[in-house]
Amino acid sequence: MGYSFPSTTDRWTAMRSALLIQRWYRQYVARLEMRRRCTWNIFQSIEYAGQQDQIKVSQSRHHLTKEKSAFYILLFNEVFQDVEWEPYFCYKSIEVPDTYAGPHLTFPLTVSNITELVEAFKHKEQLHARFVLQLLGETWRLLRVLPNITEVSTCHSKEITICGDLHGHLEDLLLVFYKNGLPSVETPYVFNGDFVDRGKDSIEILLILFAFQLVYPNDVHLNRGNHEDHIVNLRYGFTKEVLGKYRLHGKKILKLLQKIFSWLPLATVIDQKVLILHGGISDTTDLKLIAKLERNRVSLELTQYHSPNTQSHQIGPSHKTTAISGLAQFLDMLWSDPMLQDGCIPNEVRGGGCYWGPDVTQEVLNRHNLCLLIRSHECKQDGYEFCHNRKVLTIFSASNYYEVGSNRGAYIRLGPDLNPHVVQYQASRSTRELTLRQSVGRTERSALRALREQLFAHKSDLISAFEEYDPEHTGVISMERWAVATETVLHLGLPWRVLRSQLVGCSTQEGMINYNDWFRELALMDPNKELAHTGLLETMYRHHSNLETIFRIIDTDHSGLISFEEFRQTWKLLSSHLKMEISDKAISDLALSIDFNKDGSIDINEFMEAFRLVDCSHAQILDSINEGLTPDLQQPTSPS
After folding, report:
1. Among 117, 391, 500, 543, which one has the highest count of C-beta atoms within 10 angstroms of its own C-beta?
2. CB of 463 within 8 A of CB of 515?
């Protein structure tokens, strides 16, 4: 039986079908990409808003200190006093029990010591506190002799590997080592800050990097990031992690780490041509001035003595010669971000540092005879991003930063030709097993949950804004005005009209929204009726990160407990930060209501649990978001 060729009509039909399928697929991918970018904007806007609030808390602390608040000075004196002390005595009185089966370190460290340490951390083992303190003490001694700006050279047979933010993601660091090789004389590394916070293995990352730096001091270089600061650590998880893993000696470890962070170098220069620093630059960046800074005496709390709105790039060139200019440049180096347009303006999104444009990049590079700026600080969906005519390269090494599947990680290989080669990766195996639709749906769900939390946290302000458009108190406004009012209150820069179908459900009709019904739909919390009328419930929810930060600051012995009086001071500090009045009776009622065991003190875990978020059913929203997800992915998760 012979083969019959398809007719012209059949071929034309098949071609049309293929073109239709191709067109449909391109539209499908475009819609997913639009959802992915919108999700990304939500995560990033909420993250930067939190950083801005953290700086404001720090400013509130100094406001009270400058007013000679005796109670406040007493609380902070024991934790933050800057007294030079010999750290090597810390570990000598700590005995390692015979029952300890974890890794043992000997000093000077050897490569075999580090290999054993890495293998132990792979298997979730913990290094004994004696060895932790001894390792940190040796690191402190090494860092004190390093310059502010490290000079590194390549050779014909050597490439330098540059890693960005790791943020406690040990899996990413181990994957980099697997793909690229362990640090050594032949495989030098620069780690560009933000080793800690957010992830669950920050202390393990630090111990591995410090150990490699001790063995290879000329080939492993660590720059300071904005998260290498004890004030930031109180909010973003590192303090909590250390105290949880080292309950008995955690306080000593944190004190020593505070000093180590202050001694981390601020930048690295490769072959006198490539500048590597964590955040960025400004129009007054002066590497000679930065090289002379007393870096161990500069931190986030010190930089708050001058406002970002009075930084050097607003005052003028003469500002560079003053001491406060050094503080401003320190803030720029750790907190700044590039922008597309020319110029240099305060970074009001983060609350510190600046935004600088391509003209500033070109001027600073020319002035210092440089050809490339490598920085980190910003999570990128692909793990890296070029900007400013490829003169600025952002590298971010923590994959799945906001949520599993939210972004790739990456690192750079830089050879003698100084042409950066970027290597991307995805650390989570579960992510690689998801389809694109499942991955986007998972991250979108998590982002929308975080956004609904923000909306509920600003309920009172939102209602006031809505009522301005509803003078007759009908409870109904247009969707357009709902979007304008929401942005006016939250300042997140999000496309609210695009998001309305996912945030607003059955409360809409013919382009209008019943905002009272909408808030009942949000219903993110199980309200405590006894406290709701005081306004403390919403206040606590909106500022729960600040409260936990302040709580940990006041809990000077890190016991996890504070007295009713200390609890009252917590709220007084918060009310000063918010410039609002909270009555002593309301605070006392709140303390009594969450003292579940009635022992006269407040446990921080009990405190946060009392206001635990309760996610309610959003059937219509979840149906549209989770379409295509497998059942095991249906539980809501919070962003990192």
Report:
1. 117
2. yes
